[in-house]
Amino acid sequence: MRDEYEEFRRRGAEVICIAPHDLAESKRLVDELKLPFPVLADENRAVFLTYDVQSRLLSLGQRPAVYVVDRSGVIRWAHRGTQQWDIPSNRAILTVLDDLVAERSGQRSR
User: Are 85 and 94 in contact (CB under 8 A)?
Assistant: First the structure.
């Protein structure tokens, strides 16, 4: 998402990362990876547990998740990975955003 961040912004979206780390580690990730979007620390994993995004014995690490949330706070699309590498492509997420914009403007998408 870092490399296509401006594509997300052009669609009126904001990328927010929630990391299962303390504040210092989250800041280190931002600095090391040069992330242009906010990274929020979830040290006690409260958000991860609320949205069932957690490490599982057979998932070989932290399971990733991507949510598209509209301005009203409604989850419009979700992907919860089953393995740490199970992450949707940026193109797939951008298509979801395009479809939501078309829906909002009353146009039919593909």
Answer: no
* Distance from C-alpha of 65 to C-alpha of 17, rounded to nearest angstrom: 10
CB 107 within 8 A of CB 99: no
Separation of CA 34 from chain center: 17
> pLDDT (tens digit, 9 = 90+) per residue, 33-45?
999 999 999 999 8
Look up the domain containing 64 and give its range.
5-104
Alpha-carbon torsion (93, 98, 99, 101), positive or negative:
positive
Kindly state the helix (H) or strand (E) to which residue 5 belongs, with its residue range.
helix 5-10
Question: Which CATH number covers residue 71?
Answer: 3.40.30.10
Distance CA 63, CA 59 (A): 7
